[in-house]
Write a structure and sequence with these properties.
Blueprint (H helix, E strand, L loop, with lengths): L2 E2 L57 H6 L8 H8 L16 H7 L10 H12 L11 H4 L6 E5 L4 H14 L11 E5 L4 E4 L5 H4 L2 H7 L3 E3 L7 E3 L3 E9 L7 H11 L15 E3 L5 E3 L5 E3 L1 E6 L2 E9 L4 H7 L4 H6 E3 L16 H15 L8 E3 L2 E4 L2 E6 L7 H10 L2 H4 L6 E6 L4 E7 L2 E7 L14 H4 L7 H10 L11
Parallel strand pairs: 1-19, 2-3, 2-16, 4-5
Antiparallel strand pairs: 3-7, 4-6, 7-12, 8-9, 9-10, 11-12, 13-17, 14-15, 15-16, 17-18, 18-19
């Protein structure tokens, strides 16, 4: 519908108000508690385990490794891996806290058990072993439907690729209701990018001008929650469980317990500088300053639940602030019912990547314990009891579906077109108009400028409407739409 004429003057634009109430949570769940799943359950379940490791021998020494046929004397990669598991290669005594004063200073509950230093060394070796000359290789599609606990560590830094891997793992995970041990953890870090929640309006959350100048991509993820800035100083985790056992704090509390035992220790890795706790909204914060270290977003669908979280280790906090800083005038010009982000003071944990990944893997394993047998490393796969850790660093390890999801995430239709209905309201001395946008398209114009009628049906993009209007109206509208954004520079096609 198009309304041209004096209708706008009949109600001052300054009186327009937001049409929704502010929620105390910045997360959004894709379901309403007590209601059935959004998608129907599939009663047909396949019990075959496509990746059963029960017949793989436990390798304890070099002679066993040779007799098993898994390697040869010339295979130095696996020989080095086997030698790293010997008791001579690690310290015999665990490092523990040494003074009661430091314990009192932390003022938090700590486990009586110290960390397993041998396990940390094995895990570090697994992360840093070159896998280019693989004898045995596990692809993601080979193990994605395993019924046992699985951790996937992506060494890719492409943000859209990592979100695609996360979605693929979630989709392929067997129904946890029928497979009690089916749980997942995905770990990855991204090159600099801005990630908005599934139900957010990027025009109200992101400084498009700043993102364009820096060439920083804008992405829309599949889960709810607020807008976050990622860079190589931030690690991401995705904990996947059942709908019935969904909890905002189950994994974060377990993760905090693992991280806190390393505070102040000298173990050859950058240890966390302060202990962590969880606030009443489920965010991980510093126990000392209460500043936010990790934010969360959630998704619940098809009998499964996903808890996505960030962890600020050594992030560029100034860049974070600039990309999310909008003027009050710009915020007021966008009227919608989308999910708002809730700004919070943030702080870096100053922890090493390796140590964080170890803590996350240990927290996951303790939530879902398995029979304790000796760890076995098969190139890009680490087997701990019935729990598996898969390391991804080659595109050939990925199924075609992941690449298709990655492509979908880069489209204008997904990133911008999925924005909830909103109005852009401009009221200044030069021009006054209101533009209604649905699914990324301009659907309605309310203005005394008849020329604006031409915009109906066009995408809400300065590049798409640049040839429609004449000056000076063209420059005015293009700037207020998206600050003359070149979407190709943001990775959006």
């Amino acid at each position: 519908m198009i309304r041209i004429g004096g209708t706008l003057a009949s109600r001052p634009l300054s009186r327009c108000r937001r049409l929704y109430s502010h929620t105390p949570f910045d997360e959004y769940l894709d379901f309403s508690p007590g209601k059935p799943p959004l998608e129907p359950e599939d009663p047909a379940r396949i019990n075959h385990d496509p990746f059963d490791f029960s017949d793989i021998p436990i390798i304890k020494d070099e002679s066993d490794l040779l007799s098993s046929g898994l390697t040869t004397p010339s295979n130095t990669l696996l020989n080095d891996t086997n030698l790293s598991m010997s008791s001579d290669s690690v310290l015999q005594e665990p490092i523990t806290m040494t003074t009661k004063d430091f314990m009192k200073k932390l003022n938090i509950a700590r486990s009586d058990q110290s960390f397993d230093e041998q396990r940390l060394k094995r895990f570090s070796l697994f992360l840093h072993t070159d896998t280019q000359s693989r004898q045995y290789n596990t692809r993601l599609q080979d193990i994605a439907t395993i019924r046992n606990p699985l951790t996937v560590i992506s060494e890719f830094n492409n943000p859209r690729l990592n979100l695609a891997i996360e979605k693929y793992v979630y989709d392929q995970m067997p129904d946890p209701l029928g497979n009690a041990r089916s749980r997942r953890l995905v770990l990855y870090k991204n090159s600099p990018c801005v990630v908005i929640g599934k139900n957010q309006n990027p025009f109200r959350e992101v400084n498009f001008r700043e993102a364009t100048i820096r060439g920083i991509p804008i992405l829309r993820r599949f889960s709810g929650g607020g807008t976050v800035v990622h860079d190589l100083g931030n690690f991401n985790f995705s904990y996947m469980s059942s709908r019935q056992s969904f909890s905002r704090v189950e994994f974060t509390n377990a993760l905090n317990n693992e991280i806190n035992q390393f505070v102040g220790l000298d173990i050859g890795y950058d240890a966390p500088k302060f202990p962590l706790t969880t606030n009443d909204r489920g965010d991980i914060v510093s126990s000392n300053s209460l500043k936010k270290v990790s934010g969360s977003a959630y998704q619940v669908s098809r009998g499964k639940s996903l808890h996505h979280g960030t962890m600020l280790l050594k992030s560029d906090l100034k860049r974070l602030s600039a990309l999310l800083k909008l003027t009050e005038k710009r915020k007021a010009s966008i009227q919608d019912k989308s999910t708002d982000s809730i700004p919070s003071p943030v702080e870096n944990l100053e922890m090493s990547d390796t140590l964080f990944q170890f803590c996350a893997a240990e927290a996951f394993k303790k939530l879902h314990p398995t029979d304790g047998i000796e760890d076995m490393v098969y190139d890009n796969l680490l087997v701990q009891g019935d729990s598996h850790i898969l390391k991804l660093n080659e595109v050939n390890d990925l199924p075609e579906e992941v690449l298709e999801i990655q492509q979908e995430l880069s489209t204008w239709e997904w990133t911008i077109g999925k924005t909830p209905k909103f109005q852009l309201i401009v009221d200044d001395d030069e021009f006054q108009y209101q533009i209604t946008v649905e699914k990324g398209l301009i659907t309605e114009i309310d203005s005394a400028e008849p020329e604006l009628e031409k915009l109906v049906g066009f995408p809400f993009s300065s590049g798409k409407i640049s040839h429609v209007l004449a000056e000076p109206l063209r420059s005015h509208v293009m700037w207020h739409v998206d600050s003359n954004t070149n979407y190709a520079q943001l990775g959006i096609s």
